[in-house]
Amino acid sequence: MSERRKLLIVGSGPAGLTAATYAARANLAPMVIEGIAAGGQLMLTTDVENYPGFPDGIMGPELMVKMREQAARFGAEFVTADADRVDLSAAPFGVWVGGDEHRADAIVITTGASARMLGLPAEQRLLGHGVSTCATCDGFFFRDKALAIVGGGDSAIEEALFLTKFATKVTLVHRRHELRASKIMQERAFANDKIDFLWNSVITDVNGDQQVESLDVRDVVTDETSKLDVGGLFVAIGHDPNTALFAGQLDLDENGYIVTEADSTRSSIEGVFAAGDVQDHVYRQAVTAAGSGCMAAIEAERWLEERAHAAATARA
């Protein structure tokens, strides 16, 4: 077992790296189990223009490198590997990475969420080059283009409506003949003359060398195929929180997100905090993830201080 620490951070991204910076500056000497896919979803994005402090924008990977360097400057340590299992039954909590066991008095979980994808090879190749999973993040880059969005729930409709601010037309591709979205969201979409609907359809391929140029679409009823000329594809079929490690130990909601107290990052276990997309299924922005990472570090520091004070009082 490695040296027992005050704080372990499991996961990286804006939430984990912000938590690491705040915790390190508070002399908590945090260790960050950042994972093989360190940096989170911003490692898959190109230009980030809505993160405060970068008026000319910044590349997603570059922003993550800067955040990591900042945390390291104040003494945060990093393990670039995935956590295999955790033990949250009692403090000091345990996290295993390979054959190494790490123990800490408090843990901040920032393992994020993964966007569900269509599973097409070209989709991964063109991710960040016309394929996106976040209209709020990337819609501005698609001004005056015809766009497609795949999905049928509230999130897909919300993103389609948002994209009409920039696109010449938005085609919503849905495998069924009716939407799963709430009635009011459906009414808004049907009333918007910039939104077209391609019912009973699935996307079978994304075409383009450097940028998305068109989509291959198949009608699931007639089996007929067609080509849809678009300059971008937005995938809005949901997200899966990366919480498999914590199932059965922490309270999760019906969709697998970690449940935290209102206006707090406290989880169902004292001393365990959660920040970023692993507990936020509403905003899912880099800046809100960073903000909740800050909250988690401050709450962890205060919780550790309270425990230390209580222990000292008991000894006295």
What does this entry look like structurally?
The chain is α/β, with parallel strands linked by helices and 316 residues long. Helix content is 27%, strand content 26%. The chain has helices at 13-25, 60-73, 121-125, 135-138, 154-163, 183-191, 286-315; strands spanning 5-10, 31-33, 47-48, 58-59, 77-79, 85-87, 93-97, 100-109, 113-115, 131-132, 146-150, 169-173, 195-198, 201-207, 214-219, 225-229, 232-235, 239-241, 272-274. Strands 1, 2, 5, 6, 7, 8 and 19 form a seven-stranded mixed β-sheet that branches. The protein has a five-stranded parallel β-sheet with strand order 10-17-11-12-13. A three-stranded antiparallel β-sheet has the order 14-15-16. Strand 7 (93-97) and strand 8 (100-109) form a beta hairpin. Helix 1 packs parallel to helix 2, helix 1 runs parallel beside helix 7 (286-315) and helix 5 (154-163) packs parallel to helix 6. 42% of the residues are buried.
Describe what is shown at a glance.
This protein is an alpha/beta fold and 316 residues long.
